[in-house]
Amino acid sequence: MFVFPHPVKAAGCERLFQEQVSSVDVANREQLVLALEFVREGDTLVVTKLDRLARSVAHLMSILEALKAKGASLRILNLGLDTSTPTGKLMLTMLGGVAEFEREIMLERQREGIAKAKAEGKYKGRKPTAQAKADEVKTLRAQGIGASEIAKRLGIGRASVYRILEDAGQEEAA
């Protein structure tokens, strides 16, 4: 059995920073922060794909500025781009703009589709999870349990507990 090396390692990188975050946690990118802190003058930050590095042109430009300030460059393997060259910088900026444009168009279509579905009565959104536990919230509150503890026990937000109690006329007891 032959084991293929990680593409970034195969590109000659000495240190590997790797993370997988959901779109919910995109703001919390510890490994990216560590990689940018680690980069030294003359280094090249190597990534496999542009969309793995930045979610917007603004974010990409801020990363490029941070690298430039340190005297480092960026290389994107699947595009064959290297920002240590003027052509690489130009192409990266253009591709980043196109990627952001595509994302905005996709979000616009999504919003239009949701509006159309709502108008046709087909889009209801997700079921309110906290409201399904309203009886449990009221029972626990009647037992003298506080809102924070109720929220913790039922796995819902504290604001949802207060909303349910307010709807039931028990908000002053919370």
Radius of gyration: 25 Å
CATH architecture of the largest domain: 3-Layer(aba) Sandwich
Mean pLDDT: 83
Shape: elongated
Q: How many DSSP H or I helices?
A: 7
Fraction of residues in β-strands: 5-15%
Provide the structure class.
mainly alpha
Biggest pleated-sheet summary: 3 strands, mixed
The tally of strands reads: 3
Order of helices and strands: HHEHEEHHHH
CATH class of the largest domain: Alpha Beta
Measured as a percent range, the helix fraction is 40-55%
Distance between the termini: 63 Å
CATH superfamily of the largest domain: Resolvase, N-terminal catalytic domain
Total domain modules: 2
CATH topology call of the largest domain: Rossmann fold
Q: Going across the biggest sheet, name each strand in turn.
A: 1-2-3
The stretches of 5 or more residues where confidence is low (pLDDT under 50) are: none
Brief descriptors of the model:
three-stranded mixed sheet, mainly alpha, Arc Repressor Mutant, subunit A, Rossmann fold
Structural features, described:
Helix 5 crosses helix 6 and helix 6 crosses helix 7. The chain is mostly helical and 174 residues long. 50% of the residues lie in helices and 6% in strands. The radius of gyration is 25 Å and the shape is elongated. The chain has two domains: 113 residues, 3-Layer(aba) Sandwich (Rossmann fold); 43 residues, Orthogonal Bundle (Arc Repressor Mutant, subunit A), CATH 1.10.10.60. The chain has seven helices and three strands, in the order ααβαββαααα. The model has no long low-confidence stretch (mean pLDDT 83). A three-stranded mixed β-sheet has the order 1-2-3, with helices on one face.
